[in-house]
Amino acid sequence: MKINLLDEMWNLCSSRLVHRRSGTMSSLSVPKPACLNKPFVAPHRFMFGPGPSNVPPRILEAGANPIIGHMHPEMFEIMSDIKSGIQYAFQTQNNLTFAVSGTGHTAMECALFNALEPGDGVLVAVNGIWGERATDMAERIGAKVNTISAPPGGCFTNDEIKKALSKHRPALMFLAHGESSTGVLHALDGIGDLCHQYGCLFLVDCVASMGGAPLYMDKQGIDILYTGSQKVLNAPPGSAPISFSPRACQKAFNRRTKPVSFFLDLAWLANYWGCDDKPARTYHHTGPVSAFYSLREALRMLAEEGLEESWERHRTVAEYFHSGLEDMGLKLFVKDKSSRLPTVTTILAPPGYDWKEITSFIMKTHNVEVSGGLGPSAGLVLRVGLMGCNSSRASVDMVLSAFRDALQHCHKSKV
Ligand code: PMP
């Protein structure tokens, strides 16, 4: 009813405008784009690539709620619910827990830009594209980056990490829990303690793993943890949960220099999210209201299922998927079973085939998105993401039959 009223107001207003303009010469040199004459209707696709994943109707509907002010009391309540949802999903008591307005990269920059100052040492574990990107970001702000590298598909031992910490004495260490370019799930136990032993903050990227594999921010000594909305959470891209431990706050709030980004300045964001001790919140930026509605619903769905239940579902579905792939003669890229990411699976590009032909055949014939490799895995692998609501045996069966079909119909050269 209310929506109809708004529609009518708009129609009335635009018909008046048309009336007033008719007969007068236009001052515009750029005409109305013809492409905008018709509305856009998104096709339905099975989003089984590394993200974004499908968004369930409940979350889409939550996002379609009417817009309210980003600083209305109801919005502050939603933000407080989101904070509690993230604390649950991350398993943390950290007060400074919120969602960055932006995608996973924004959260990544929020973490690095606030925790590091020019000249600070940072140790980046590089076993795929996310370590490479973290290196690039840290270099841009004048941090001194040292890396440890493992071949794509590989991991680091705690001993290797300890040696690098003791050699470089960094202020911060970066590690991807779920390396979505290579399909690796990195063990975290003990690394937080090692970092703290060397006076270093532990920063973890869980964009591709949160909700899909066990993760305990506080117990594992993680100082900064961030994720994205569009993977296991099944919300639209555009908001990115993040949390800072008291140790990380100590560093971020006692800087000699201002963070390079105003938009990502933690002091401003802490105030916007009601996480500081100031009596009132000040306008910083206009939060993405609809994205926050969706994120709240996504966190609600995760809490409804239960975090442990969600981890277990992703584990069993991934196992079912992996054995189905191997039965078909396909080879998994990550050799060590315990290091396989349950959310994003990397499959060795089948010899003799053009991987691009396979992904486009599957899209065209089955309406299913799967993708090729990224960064160091480009050309080497196919990637399939089964995350959140897409992590089911039914999705696995659909992907397996699409692959079977592709291997039969795509061109195969002699190898
Ligand atoms: N880290 C990891 C592990 C990711 O998988 C992604 C998204 N593919 C990102 C960071 C960046 O997230 P976004 O694309 O939302 O910026």
Structure write-up:
- It holds the Pfam family Aminotran_5.
- Belongs to the class-V pyridoxal-phosphate-dependent aminotransferase family.
- The protein is an alpha/beta fold and 415 residues long.
- Helices cover 40% and strands 14% of the residues.
- The protein is built from 13 helices and 14 strands.
- Helix 2 runs antiparallel to helix 10, helix 3 crosses helix 10 and helix 12 packs across helix 13.
- The longest helix has 21 residues.
- The protein binds 4'-deoxy-4'-aminopyridoxal-5'-phosphate.
- The site of 4'-deoxy-4'-aminopyridoxal-5'-phosphate has 14 residues, from helix 4.
- The rounded distance between the terminal residues' Cα atoms is 65 Å
Radius of gyration in whole Å, from Cα?
A: 23 Å
Quick one: how many beta strands? 14
In sequence order, what are the helices and strands, one letter per element?
HEHHEHEHEHEEEHEEEHHHHEHEEEH
Q: How large is the count of helical segments?
A: 13
Profile the largest sheet: 7 strands, mixed
Uncertain ranges = none
Strand order of the largest sheet: 2-10-9-8-5-3-4
Query: What are the distinct ligands in this entry?
Result: 4'-deoxy-4'-aminopyridoxal-5'-phosphate
Which overall shape is indicated by the principal axes computed on the Cα atoms?
Answer: globular
Structural class: alpha/beta
How helix-rich are the residues, as a percent range? 40-55%
Percent range for β-strand residues: 5-15%
User: What's the mean pLDDT score?
Assistant: 95
